[in-house]
Amino acid sequence: MATLRAGRSLQRLSPSTLSCPRAIRARRCLPAATHLHHRPRHLSYTLSCRRAETIDAFPSLLANTPPEFLSRAAPTATTPQTLTEKIVQRYSQGLPQGKFVKSGDYVTLSPHHCMTHDNSWPVATKFMAIGASKVHDPKQIVMTLDHDVQNKSEKNLKKYSQIEEFAKSQGVDFYPAGRGIGHQIMVEEGYAWPGTMAVASDSHSNMYGGVACLGTPVVRTDAASIWATGRTWWQIPPIARVNFTGILPQGVTGKDVIVALCGLFNNDEVLNHAIEFTGHSNTMRSLPVDDRLAIANMTTEWGALSGLFPIDDVLKGWLRYKATEASMYKAPSPTASLTSDRFNHQRLDELLSDPLTADKGATYAKELFLDLSTLSPYVSGPNSVKVATPLNELEGQAIPINKAYLVSCTNSRRSDLAAAAKVFKNAATTDATGKITPARIKNGVQFYIAAASLPEQRAAEEQGDWQALLAAGAQSLPSGCGPCIGLGTGLLEPGEVGISASNRNFKGRMGSTEAKAYLASPEVVAASALAGRIAGPGWYERPEGWVGVMSGEGDGIAEEDRMISIEDALDKLVREAEAAVMEGEQAVAGSSESASASPENGGDVETMTDILPGFPEKVTGEILWCDADNVNTDAIYPGKYTYDDAFSSDPAKMATVTMENYDRDFGQVAQAGDILVSGFNFGCGSSREQAATAILAKKIPLVVAGSFGNIFGRNSINNALMGVEVPKLIQRLRATFSTPGSDGSSSTGKANPAPPITEPTQNKQSLDSPPPAPMSQPATPSALTVRTGWTFTWDVRRSRVVVVEGEGGREWTQRVGELPPNVQEIIARGGLEGWVRGEIEGR
């Protein structure tokens, strides 16, 4: 069996790829003899290729491995699934027999773990308000204090005390202020476990994907639901595959990879997608786990809902290291369970005996690639993650800086601190007597450091790196979010320029809106603090023949280098044959019959959705057209009313200001029962739930858009507002109702072909409420809110919509996503809180 497996694996390798992938074939590629799992990055100049260790177990473990462990065959799925879909499958409840989940499905989700941080008390108050008194599964919940740890005010300390007491009373694992940033704790303590799903009430839960754990954010109502019932709902997003090729060069880091991706693909290509990162094993070895964590963390800024790496040799080696470390250094915590309860070799044996992988033939919504060997150090900004510039271009501009930051869950682990410390160690001088003078930061520059967690700081102290940074003049801050989210010491003042190894540089995020913020790797941040301007340490050398960064759509693998097994080839032939047969059948059936059967017209194989008793099978109303993209939550429900509890608790009052910041006349034009239709990215911006409840207060039961901001989509269902995405309808409305000459229509009133519909650019939505993209409207609209006379019907049972374009006008239909019974139940009960109450009462 072993011989057969070896033979099959060789079939996947072309002669040109046995030693190095195509992108680095001209370069000498030396295998690394040793690898430290928390080693400094590129601190030696002796290796031309950078790889992580391939050993996935210690010799004693390998020696005792039973033969059946090596020969175990993975079961074959009847429906090919992505890695994301496979993980969701494991954590979905109430699935019909034989159901394989896919992108677009709504599922009842019971995540492996749910983390809340400083917002634990608001979640607790919501938890208690819905009638819950006992956490459903204390082992499922993790609470950390990390956001405002520098705030010693009586009010904040009281909140922290309330959270700790609540956690203690419920038997929940709790990590106090100063212990570390919640996301780092989730990873280093083994809560974010490969092949599982973990959620958090914070947008950077994407980071768990760096260790092959599907991490995604939830809102506070979801967290309260999980506390009370162990469950919430989730719609599986479209899934994008990002394929890496080549080998990451010396002097380039994971931070450079994600900064480059945000800048190279900056037109919302992955907005609201789940991302899966893939690549040849040689390529993936050049990305250690710490780099993967940084990449996955900032998929949030890229616009994605998750960023998932595979379970491969690099991760296996890291996991073995962590399990051994946990067994050697057991430090009991008075408020949390032992690390070794989660990180242990027995659990790893179970995981690695049958690790999850994406199936061959799995369907992805899109595919992008990036050749890592063509990358150089990159810098993001100023004040935007969508502006990414090669470091050498900015170095030529000699941009002075006032502050530098090595903080946050993105890049302040021991390897990051070591890389920054090495910059100063290399810059130290030695006189004729052998006396060493440490290098120090430039006069006038302030350099702030905060470890991702206390264990990471202690590891850096043991290596001498923490002390080296302090000796260089850095100012230490407690382990926590701090300046990254604009809290505590060291914020940017008006007119200042800062460079940070954190994840977000939106205008005003780290201090004054009149300051400029850049993002870069720890090495570049340290070198910039040393030079007093944006600069690098000089560890990167551009390869000979370099012509630019190679990236684009597809997998980036040249056909002559494509590795394919016999099984893959047969699978490809079968799929091509099936497609040819289908095409022939359609041709025989005739063009008219084929057209009526197209998915766009809703004529494909029809499946019927079960409808709960009392839930409407159809929702019908006149289309009320608001022609704008990026209608944010402040436009829907003005912020000045959001924290006026008396106003926001009165539906009659809320109805008077619905959409006020979009159109002051909206209240007079809109009528009860209308169907509100708007453009793309509707509901971007802040996480206020009133944006959904205000529309319901206006007695509008359904919102239709080209696309929704993710946070609005969640809040809508959580508050019983129905919503559906129909991009074609936006195109038809714009072609018909745009002012002549303002949006592509002619002076004769005849509509010209509409431009392609795309997601809006410069979108900055997230759970942390950065400034949304500017609202986009026609150049000369005749009215902001238009009664169209068109009728929109959502046939929930048949998962299709029917549009009648006015009296005697065109009628057309289109398939839409299913609204399954589990989501119907939430809406029917008045939202997620009502559903939770029902579950509690039914126990």
Task: Please provide a written account of the structure.
With 843 residues, the chain is α/β, with parallel strands linked by helices. It has 30 helices and 29 strands. The strands form 7 sheets. A 7-stranded mixed beta sheet has the order 26-25-24-23-27-28-29, with helices on both faces. Helix 15 packs parallel to helix 16 (454-463). It is globular. The two termini are 51 Å apart. It is an enzyme of class 4 (lyase). Belongs to the aconitase/IPM isomerase family. Residues 585-604, 737-784 are annotated as: Disordered. Keywords: Amino-acid biosynthesis, Iron, Iron-sulfur, Lyase, Lysine biosynthesis, Metal-binding, Mitochondrion, Transit peptide. Pfam families: Aconitase (PF00330), Aconitase_C (PF00694).
In short:
Helices cover about 30% and strands about 15% of the residues.
Give me the count of strands: 29
Into which percent range does the helicity of residues fall?
25-40%
Binned strand content: 5-15%
Strand order, sheet with most strands: 26-25-24-23-27-28-29
Uncertain regions: pLDDT < 50 for 5+ in a row? 1-40, 42-75, 590-600, 740-771
Q: What sort of overall outline do the alpha carbons produce when their principal axes are compared?
A: globular
Distance between the termini: 51 Å
Largest beta sheet, briefly?
A: 7 strands, mixed
Query: Could you tell me the mean pLDDT?
Result: 84
Structural class by helix and strand composition: alpha/beta
Specify the oligomeric state. single chain
Task: Give the count of helical stretches.
Answer: 30
Indicate the radius of gyration in whole angstroms: 28 Å
